[in-house]
Write a structure and sequence with these properties.
The structure is a single chain. The chain has 438 residues and is α/β, with parallel strands linked by helices. It contains 13 helices and 11 strands. Helix 5 crosses helix 7. It is globular. The chain binds pyridoxal-5'-phosphate (PLP). Pyridoxal-5'-phosphate binds next to helix 5.
Length: 438
């Protein structure tokens, strides 16, 4: 099993795994022990190990132990969360966690929401809610209800799944207006206001502003109060995509960074990122009463109940549902918000340590994120960034990514693992220095 001592990167390629899979023609049974051992061996050799403390990568966490327990418990009981009639205990546990997170986000007492498979599903839910509120006939007629093309506004550094979501929603990829950033990776509110005015003048129908609180490339936070004010003035849905950054709500020291979130109509927060649950666990929160049942109502004779506000299948995208929320319930119940405060503060502190170590050695950190992502540029005379990152990752010692920030190639370093320490930081800095020099 993965212990943290081995390489972070896969040591086998897909072709080799495919060849090994050719033995499985499923014609005859095999002993479970042998198949489990085979599977664990493949995963040990054939994955980027996000559970290794030398993974400084995308927002994938090393999952907490309570979250892992939740997966096992859900698997044993296998509850069906489509209705509260079938699974009252599971539905109530999820609803309780959603209320707690919404309250911690500064949402009012009537806020609702639900667990999703991830941030993309939550963002898609926001888009459907925004369109549903924007026109009373959207539910029946789709985008044909609008007098012009419906538009949504995100920054150039937002999560670009927005294009897929607009495509799915039937408003088309061209509905996504990418607003320029301010030179520091945040939505430029002046540009945003100008784009909305220009679109209205051209006959389009602005529907939603989606600000990002913690951009994926650089951990930057769009000016939430400015976006909120503009959305209110223009009567647009205001969504905050805090898929990763939302977890700083746990920290009394850092939660002010999310100021303005409390004014949002809706928010996306992933549990499977900085809240360190297992994969496939996001949240959608909204303060707009009734919108979820307007957007997702459905009826079927065979369902045991049909009650908005109680039965998830009539207020969410999914129908059959897995018991996702138990992961965050157990983690919060065991550690409380204080444990998450320690977790995010520790990641931010470690990120600042990396910042110091690198700048001492002549590197430049080009993003000023208050969170735990660094976009680093090596000293003059080093190899180009894509080569550098390829060498670092190729060494198997450390995993980092490349990203572009304000027009520059940078090495993206993010503290995601709750147990990375100064020792792993030393290894990271050494690996970066080796790769830049070589
Ligand atoms: C990760 C991320 C998403 C997508 O979430 P998934 O959980 O991967 O579906 C959306 N927005 C932001 C800002 C993200 O970081």
């Amino acid at each position: 099993m993965q212990t943290g001592a081995g390489p972070v990167t896969p040591v086998v390629q897909a072709a080799e795994i495919r060849r090994a899979l050719a033995d499985f023609d499923f014609a005859a049974p095999r002993p479970l022990d042998a198949v489990l051992a085979w599977t664990i061996e493949q995963l040990t050799r054939g994955l980027v190990h996000v559970t290794n403390p030398r993974y400084f990568g995308l927002f994938n966490p090393a999952p907490s132990f309570p979250a892992q327990c939740a997966d096992r418990i859900s698997a044993v009981f296998n509850p069906q969360l489509a209705t509260a009639t079938t699974s009252p205990a599971a539905v109530e546990i999820e609803a309780h966690v959603i209320r707690a997170v919404a309250s911690q986000a500064g949402f009012g007492p009537r806020a609702t929401g639900h667990f999703t498979n991830g941030g993309s599903e939550a963002n898609y839910t926001a888009l459907i809610c925004a369109l549903t509120r924007a026109h009373p006939e959207f539910a029946e007629k789709g985008s044909r209800a609008f007098s012009g093309a419906p538009m949504l506004y995100v920054s150039r550094d937002s999560h670009l799944a927005w294009f897929k979501l607009a495509h799915q929603a039937g408003i088309g990829r061209a509905a996504v207006q990418m607003i320029a950033t301010d030179g520091r990776g945040r939505m430029d509110v002046g540009n945003l206001a100008a784009a909305i005015t220009a679109d209205r003048a051209a006959g389009a129908v602005p529907v939603m502003i989606a600000a990002t609180a913690g951009t994926t490339n650089a951990g930057m936070i769009d000016p939430l109060p400015g976006c909120a004010e503009l959305a209110q003035r223009e009567r647009l849905w205001f969504h905050v995509d805090a898929a990763w950054g939302g977890a700083v709500m746990a920290s009394p020291r850092h939660r002010h960074l999310l100021g303005g979130l409390e004014q949002a109509d809706s928010a996306t927060i992933d549990a499977h990122k900085w809240f360190a649950t297992t994969m496939g666990c996001g949240m959608f929160l909204t303060q707009v009463p009734g919108i979820l049942s307007q957007a997702f109502h459905a009826a079927a004779d065979f369902m045991p109940s049909n009650e908005a506000g109680r039965d998830p299948y009539v207020t969410t995208l999914q129908w059959s549902r897995r018991f996702l929320g138990l992961r965050l319930f157990l983690a919060l119940a065991v550690g409380g918000w204080p444990a998450y405060a320690v977790h995010v503060e520790r990641a931010i502190a470690l990120s600042r340590l990396i910042h110091r170590r690198l700048t001492e050695r002549g590197w430049t950190i080009v993003n000023a994120s208050p969170l735990a992502v660094l976009c680093a540029v090596p000293p003059q005379g080093s190899c180009v960034v894509p080569t550098l990152v390829r060498r670092v990752v190729g060494s198997g010692r450390i995993w980092i990514a490349t990203t572009r920030f304000e027009g520059r190639d940078t090495a993206r370093i993010c503290v995601t693992h709750g147990e990375s320490t100064e020792r792993e930081v030393d290894e990271l800095v050494a690996a970066l220095a080796d790769a830049a020099r070589a």
